[in-house]
Amino acid sequence: MSAMPEAYSAALKRAMVHATDWLASVPDRPVRPAVDADQVAASLASILPDGPTEAADVVDELATLAEPGLMAIQSGRFYGWVMGGTLPAAMAADWLVSAWDQNTGLRFATPAAAAIEESAAAWLLDLLHLPATSDVGFTTGATTANFVGLAAGRQYLMDQAGWDLQSLGLSGAPRITTFAGRERHAAVDLALRYLGLGACVPVDADEQGRILPEALAAAMDEQPGPSLVCLQAGNLHSGAFDPMAEAVAVAHERGAWVHVDGAFGLWAAVSPTLRERLAGVEGADSWATDAHKTLNVPYDCGLAIVASPEALRRAFSIHTSYFIATDAGPGDPFEKVPELSRRARGIPVWAALRQLGRHGVIAMVERLAANARALAEGLAAIPGVEVLNDVVFTQVSVSFGSDDRTHRVTQRLMAEGAVWMSGSAWRGREILRISVSNWSTDAGDVAASIAAVRRAVEAEPEA
Which residues are bridge partners to 257 per DSSP? Predict the structure, then answer.
């Protein structure tokens, strides 16, 4: 074992050099990758070599081969798919997570990882103004966080109905009906598919994608019985928030479990100036969000928050002879997520929160929203550009006239690579969708981004 540190030293030193070189290049490099996946694949060895290679040489080869195919997601000019960058403390903490290599399932086996995650969870509940007694699970992302919240809801509803889900499964079980707005994210449908609950009942929404409480009440009255209601904190295209207080009241009056998909929008709850748009969200039963979006920690890290620890742990806990389980109040980490084995995702969350502090988190969230408003105002001043949504948080959706022109402008923007904004379709129209999620985006990035859109618009006149 005495030679073990030396075995890592050279490779880690090379990784440090390549990582810092990459980060130094991000502010000035094109955001888009220089090559596509097929081109990267062509540069890789097609046959595994028979003999070993020095670890440091492997790191050098890996960095050299990957660099042309890397998207500069950390760039302040990256606005695609609601992806944040990475805060310095969170990135460094993630390196330590890999070095420590803790399998974060059991409190007894990995006490440091468990305790740090519990601390991060308490800070998160306080910042988001959610019930302090809730359980927090650190998942792979918002899709699995939605899965966890809905699984806890399924467990609760089956227990209420007197159905032994663990022994009997879903065959012959009482039917659970799920209600969600027409403009829900597809991750909700995917989670329902995983859970064997089938398609949801779509509920009408307004022009910004907000569910209509009266439509929810009517739909639930037409299909009474055990039910899940999925609300949305942050519409994919408009950023709008469902009317939480009214919708939660409608659902709870009918005995439903209320789950909130807040992949990026739940973070608005930390801000005194934005929180009112989520009024009543704390009354839900479970919530899902991402830390690698608005909080800017490395991939991957979703957050599943459940107000009823009993329902969550009944859904995910398992007992076996080789586990040394804990009877402590916080429970074991594996009881709150689908995995028995996982990396300590919550440690970078703790580091990000510790770096920022309460006021830093609030300032970052409010700065993201302010940058979105500045982008919308700057783009609206360009002839031929129409901002389609009320910019209430961090999303901006724009059109350049016809669908054809919008598509051409979007393709030109991505080809140039000075910024990255993704195309989408919303309410029957082709759009350019802008998601402001990076902690490092500043006024210079906003100005450069507006200028890039102006160049693309001027190069693609209406046919």
Answer: 228
Separation CA 396–CA 394 (nearest Å)? 7
The alpha carbon of residue 378 and the mean position of all alpha carbons in its chain are separated, in whole angstroms, by 27
Same fold, 92-352 and 367-459: no
Helix (H), strand (E) at residue 73:
none
Task: Specify the CATH class of 92-352 in words.
Answer: alpha beta
Handedness of CA 146, 358, 270, 393 (dihedral sign): negative
CATH of domain 367-459: 3.90.1150.10
46: left (phi over 0), alpha (psi -120 to 50) or beta: alpha
Q: How far is it, in rounded angstroms, from Cα 410 to Cα 456?
A: 8
Nearest to 350 by CA among 335, 361, 363: 361
Radius of gyration for the chain, computed over Cα atoms and rounded to the nearest angstrom? 23
Q: In what order do the strands lie in the sheet with 286-290?
A: 135-139, 302-306, 286-290, 257-261, 227-232, 177-181, 201-203
pTM: 0.96
| Residue 173 Cα to chain centre, angstroms | 32
Residue 246 CA neighbour count, 13 Å, CB half? 12
To 5 degrees, how large is the angle CA 308–CA 309–CA 313? Answer: 125
Residue-wise pLDDT tens digits, 61-93: 999 999 999 999 999 999 999 999 999 999 999
From residue 192, alpha-carbon distances to 173, 185, 364, 366 in Å are 16, 12, 33, 33
As a whole number of angstroms, the distance between CA 76 and CA 87 comes to: 12
Give the mean model confidence (pLDDT) for residues 119-134: 98
